[in-house]
Write a structure and sequence with these properties.
mainly alpha, 8 helices
Length: 143
């Protein structure tokens, strides 16, 4: 995964974390594990620093327009990844965000906005949500 894609994903993680009020240290540990598990990132500390800086920015600036942030991040990502990868990135974002189920449900509009920018259908988004929250649909089974 290249730096632009990973930076965009961390930007979305940080925005969600700030809006959902996730504990920064817990989130940093989870992100470190997530980066190792899913991406095999070598410069983990660099990316953790970026995540912390972005989270601080979003927490200290509640007036920031989250819609513009999402639009900017998604537009940058769309230029660098194919549509199938955009869907996977949205799923990864939702998967990470589901660590805080309550925050996930309160900030659900973030996922709809990212999905709209990535041209992910409402039906696909429903399946993604069921998958990350251990729900069921006609295509997702819970175990």
């Amino acid at each position: 995964m290249n730096d632009i894609i990973l930076s965009g994903l961390l930007n979305l993680f940080a925005l969600f974390g700030a809006l959902a009020g996730i504990d920064k240290e817990r989130a940093a540990r989870l992100i470190a594990a997530y980066l190792d598990q899913h991406f095999g990132v070598r410069r983990r500390e660099t990316y953790l620093g970026l995540y912390r800086d972005l989270t601080d920015l979003y927490e200290m600036s509640p007036d920031l327009d989250k819609d513009k942030i999402i639009e900017s991040v998604c537009e940058g990502l769309r230029k660098n990844i194919e549509s199938s990868e955009q869907s996977l990135l949205l799923l990864r974002f939702m998967e990470f965000s589901a660590i805080n189920r309550e925050g996930f449900l309160k900030q659900e509009d973030l996922f709809y906005k990212v999905a709209a920018h990535f041209n992910v259908t409402g039906e696909e988004l429903m399946h993604f949500k069921a998958f990350v929250l251990d729900g069921e649909t006609d295509r997702v089974r819970s175990f």
